[in-house]
Design a protein that fits this description.
Elements lengths: L10 E5 L18 E6 L1 H4 L3 E5 L7 E3 L16 H4 E8 L13 H11 L8 E5 L18 H6 L6 H10 L3 E4 L12 H4 L1 H11 L3 H4 L7 H4 L8 E3 L12 E8 L7 E11 L1
Parallel strand pairs: 5-6, 6-7, 7-8
Antiparallel strand pairs: 1-10, 2-3, 4-8, 4-10, 5-9, 9-10
Length: 270
């Protein structure tokens, strides 16, 4: 059967992705990008570039393969899952800041406050406000501070994982370095000085909040259920706070890929 034409003339596409350039930092222990010209118009009648980078740089999608041997790769994730309805939850407006823990109660409070509901199958974009500290942030308020961006953003504990599964959330995007709290990643060992400051603020040893078996639980415990996430979102995200929108994530069809650079967008009415 022929496809019926769809009128998209009244749809705006907002870019929720960050810039990607030679200054864009990779996550802890991951190398950032290098870019070099291998052909120049003056000499070769054409310009050509060669890039080298790990995949966890800039706005990117983590596939389950990132944490699961023989898990689903980027190329196997259907577009039908990568495009769909969702909500943009503004945690920053709730006063959640440096080193803080967000919980399922915050998301349920957000539902009461906005009158919106996170429905089964929704894509959830988490706005912490930390995108403004990203060195490659390109839109709106910009206060580059990569230490604050990568090491001080908020994150969840184990109770949030079961809530996500119970609510049947499709996948997440976040305007920070990880859906996991930074002190529940390798960063706790890399920056013990800031880990101590985090423990002081939270009032408990970090080992009690995130024991060893809970390491990166937003990856290890959700990826087996197909609940993956986009990291380092940002761009025009402040234009769609506390709204129900259509979300699209567009990585290249990378067979065997454990992650991929992607364009994250929101579709809204004009």
């Amino acid at each position: 059967m022929p496809f019926s034409p769809i009128d998209l003339s009244n749809v705006r596409v907002l870019d929720l992705s960050q810039n990607w350039d030679i200054h864009t930092p990779g996550f802890a222990t991951y190398e950032g990008p290098t870019v070099k010209w291998i052909k120049r118009v003056a000499f070769d009648k054409v310009g050509g570039q060669h890039i080298s980078s790990t995949l966890h740089v800039g706005t990117h999608l983590d596939a389950p393969l990132h944490f699961i041997t023989n898990g689903q790769d980027i190329g196997s994730i259907p577009l039908e899952k990568l495009v769909g309805p969702g909500v943009v939850v503004d945690l920053e407006a709730m006063g959640i800041g440096d080193y803080d823990i967000y919980t399922s109660a915050h998301f349920e409070e957000w539902e009461r406050k906005t009158g919106l509901r996170i429905e089964p199958g929704d894509i959830v974009v988490v706005h912490t406000g930390y995108h403004k500290y990203y060195p490659s942030n390109w839109y709106g308020e910009t206060q580059p501070d990569e230490t604050r961006y990568f090491i001080k953003h908020p994150g969840p504990t184990r109770e949030f994982v079961q809530w996500v599964l119970d609510r049947k959330i499709a996948w997440f995007a976040i305007d920070a370095g990880s859906m996991d709290h930074p002190m529940n990643t390798v960063i706790r060992k890399i920056r013990p000085d800031l880990a101590a400051k985090c423990a002081e603020k939270l009032g408990r040893p970090l080992e009690e909040i995130w024991p060893e078996e809970d390491l990166q639980l937003m990856h290890y415990d959700l990826f087996p259920h197909g609940v993956f996430h986009v990291e380092n979102a940002g761009g025009m995200i402040d234009e769609v706070l506390d709204q129900r929108v259509w979300i699209g994530c567009f990585p290249w069809k990378f067979n065997g890929g454990e992650a991929a650079f992607c364009r994250l967008v929101a579709f809204v009415g004009k």
